[in-house]
Amino acid sequence: MEMTRVCICCLSQKPLTGFASVDHVMPRAFGRFTNSPTLNCVCDDCNGYFGRTIELSMGRDSLEALMRLLYRTKPAREVKELGRQRVSTTLDFDDPDWKGCHIQWVEEDGQVVADFVPQVGFRRRDGSEGWVFVTERDLEDPTKPLPAEADLSKGIRLVSRSREMDEHLVAVLARWEIRFVKTQEGGGVAASDDSYAPLNIQGRVDDTSLRCMSKIAFNYLAWRQGAGVDFVRLPTFNAIRAFIRHGTRAAHPLVEASLKPILTDDKTSTRQTNGHLVTASWTADNKHIVGQVSLFNSLTYAISLAKDFEGTWRPLRAGHLMTSMITRRGFIGTVAGSLLATPLATQAQQPGKVHRIGYLGVTTASAHARYVEALRLGLRDLGYVEGKNLAIEYRWAEDRYDRLPDLAAELVRMKVDLIFTHATPGTLAAKHATTTIPIVMAISGDAVATGLVASIARPGGNITGSNFFFPELNAKRLELLTEARPAARRMAALVNPDNPAHTLALKAMESVAKVLKVELEVVEVRGPQDFSDIFSAMVKTRVEAISVLDDPMLIANARQIADLAVKTRLPTIGFREIVDAGGLIAYSVDFPAAWRRAAVFVDKILKGAKPADLPVEQPTKFEVVINLRTAKALGLTIPLSLLQRADQVIDP
């Protein structure tokens, strides 16, 4: 009989194999800690759920982002990227001209400062003072309507830090059929400005923060009692469980935030700590269990873990200090309440210098247009504009991987300042072509195992960029596919034999297949000309579902793969492009975000940094997208448990 365990968060009884991951009491979203306890009583599904919806979203709009930034428990480059991916903070001014304006965190000369997010301001429809600000990112998303309170006829203002971005915003407005006429210098357009001005930035304690603090306290309580006890599974903790998982509020306040420290040296001074304190205790009436989470013994949360408890257990009044592994470099500003003063950033590029980048594309220009545009936007954010101070030489392999070595050698002969590429085949070709020209990889599957870099922390050589856990991701896809189609006993892995990363992924998938008791058939494809034949062959061998591995050629032909899968009635799982094209499920990283993020590596290298000194980064967000339209066409009913974990559901 298979051994099972009850998860303390969802209270579901699951096999022990579903508890493979460990949960840190202090989530990794806060940084790395030398003595953060771990526990194994939270199932993998809940671990993934919390990772997507709570821990990894904390840097976007909460006061904790400012605290982590100030105390340097999270590298500034990561907080900077969170700000670029989603607007994290808005100005809270009495001045109506700036109230609600979006800002982002950037790093300049070792200092973390606030900079404007490129955005457009519209006058308010009700005639009141102030502006309705819409970011460039939202304007470029055709699925997002303009705010209803924005009046498009009463005046528009552009907010940016460069003339080029002003022009780009005007072009984006034109797509909405909005004509922008500049009325006066600095009037209609917020002119670029190199001066510094103080800003009062107000972070806010939002539900994301409160739910994460509650999870920390609840995890700590579970750790104090040991992973196997029934105590934390009692119904008395259902209220805090519902708040952590779904944001459901109880009749009584669950979390209160204050600037009250836990530790003091004496009656007047606060003892400074280089980590976060967590405690759990009972109130005086012995009926209320309270947890406390104190960030650097400064910002403290009191969490009501259980109210009117009737049990007999009495926890000790004890605490645990989790020390940051990143050296605290002191305040860059001063926190007073939730206000932080910080200067605006300026952009500075070496005048007259034109940087030349060689872009080694594995597939075609048309297939990678959205990724190239994401890179351009990232570079533009950092002050690099094609035709002005940047030139990009594009070389495309057109899905023929055997052409990559020659194309890489051609870029080397051109003596470009940097080679930008993607995926394992492209990066390997660039690596073999040069040991001196810096190479930035937008994304690669397991760069250490494929020999691209020596290690994640110290890549060595001339390569850096982003890497993701390719074998683990594909193993997890197989689990999700089995959950979507439990009766399936024969599955196929669609691979490109010319991609070395696929060999590593297949080993992980085969191990999981044995545990799931499914037969895994490896189907090799080198080009789109093979698709029709291999799908016919899979039908003959009675394959019941397909997992498509990430590969530039396969991603570029996602539409053809998805169409054939629906035609042959085979459910598919893979990258985001496959589900957008009509596949069933995607479990993947955000590739456009990786390309935009790669611009940061390019910027640092062009400013003198060595690739060997820039740690390889790993995406922290993995999305589950389910296409119910395809499920309906295939006659499948997706389990509710899987739908609830999805980040996005495409309705039929």
Describe this structure in words.
It contains 20 helices and 31 strands. With 652 residues, the chain is an alpha/beta fold. Helix 9 (369-381) crosses helix 18. The longest helix is centred in the first third of the chain and has 19 residues, at 207-225.
Task: Kindly summarize this structure in a few lines.
This protein is α/β, with parallel strands linked by helices and 652 residues long. The chain has 4 domains: 30-38 and 206-340, no CATH class; 93-196, no CATH class; 355-468 and 593-613, Response regulator (Rossmann fold, 3-Layer(aba) Sandwich), CATH 3.40.50.2300; 472-588 and 622-650, 3-Layer(aba) Sandwich (Rossmann fold), CATH 3.40.50.2300. 31% of the residues lie in helices and 23% in strands.
Which parts are unreliable, with pLDDT below 50 for 5 consecutive residues or more?
A: 82-88, 183-203, 326-351
Strand content: 15-25%
Number of E strands: 31
| SSE class | alpha/beta
Order of strands in the sheet with most strands:
26-25-27-28-29-30-31
Q: Which percent range fits the helix content?
A: 25-40%
Number of helices: 20
CATH class of the largest domain: Alpha Beta
User: What count of domains describes the coordinates?
Assistant: 4
How would the global form be characterised?
A: globular
Helix-strand blueprint:
Elements: E1 4-6, E2 13-15, E3 23-24, E4 38-39, H1 44-53, H2 58-61, H3 63-71, H4 76-85, E5 89-90, E6 102-108, E7 111-116, E8 119-124, E9 131-135, H5 136-139, E10 150-159, H6 163-175, E11 189-190, E12 198-202, H7 207-225, H8 238-246, E13 255-258, E14 275-282, E15 289-295, E16 299-306, E17 318-323, E18 335-336, E19 339-343, E20 355-361, H9 369-381, E21 390-396, H10 404-413, E22 418-421, H11 423-433, E23 439-441, E24 463-465, H12 470-484, E25 490-495, H13 500-516, E26 519-524, H14 531-540, E27 545-548, H15 552-556, H16 558-567, E28 572-574, H17 576-580, E29 585-588, H18 591-606, E30 623-627, H19 628-634, H20 640-644, E31 648-650
Parallel strand pairs: 10-11, 20-21, 20-22, 22-23, 23-24, 25-26, 25-27, 27-28, 28-29, 30-31
Antiparallel strand pairs: 1-2, 3-4, 5-6, 6-7, 8-9, 8-10, 12-19, 13-16, 14-15, 14-17, 15-16, 18-19, 29-30
Helix pairs in contact: 7-8, 9-18, 10-11, 12-13
